[in-house]
Amino acid sequence: MNALITASPLGLVARWSTRSQEQARRNAMAACTVLAARRLERVEVEEYVAGYLAERAASTEAAPAAPVRNVS
């Protein structure tokens, strides 16, 4: 009797819905992994740029200003 239910259209629909849900979960996990990697990369870039700009600002403030020459 179980074989009849599995081979019936209702059984086919039940298997399709299960497989579809499993595939959707796999897709969601893959997307989550990609998003986490992109988020980490964005944070690393933000930290690098902030450090670079802070270092540049500190070196600019520490350097004496060049004298202005009047060429008239």
Task: Summarize the model shown.
The protein has helices at 2-7, 9-62. It has 72 residues and is mainly α.
**Helix residue percentage:** over 70%
User: How would you classify the quaternary structure?
Assistant: single chain
Overall, the morphology is rod-shaped
Quickly give the structural class: mainly alpha
Order of helices and strands: HH
Low-confidence stretches: none
- Count every helix, treating DSSP H or I runs of 4 or more residues as helices: 2
- The average pLDDT score comes to 86
Q: Strand content of the residues, in percent? A: under 5%
Let me know the number of strands.
Answer: 0
Instruction: Return Rg in Å.
Output: 31 Å
How many angstroms separate the termini?
107 Å
For the biggest sheet, the summary is:
none
Descriptive keywords:
single chain, 83% helix, mainly alpha, 72 residues
Written account of the structure:
With 72 residues, the protein is mainly α. It has a domain at 10-58. It contains two helices and no strands. It has helices at residues 2-7, 9-62. The longest helix has 54 residues, at 9-62. It is rod-shaped, with a radius of gyration of 31 Å. The model has no long low-confidence stretch (mean pLDDT 86).
Topology:
Layout: H1 2-7, H2 9-62
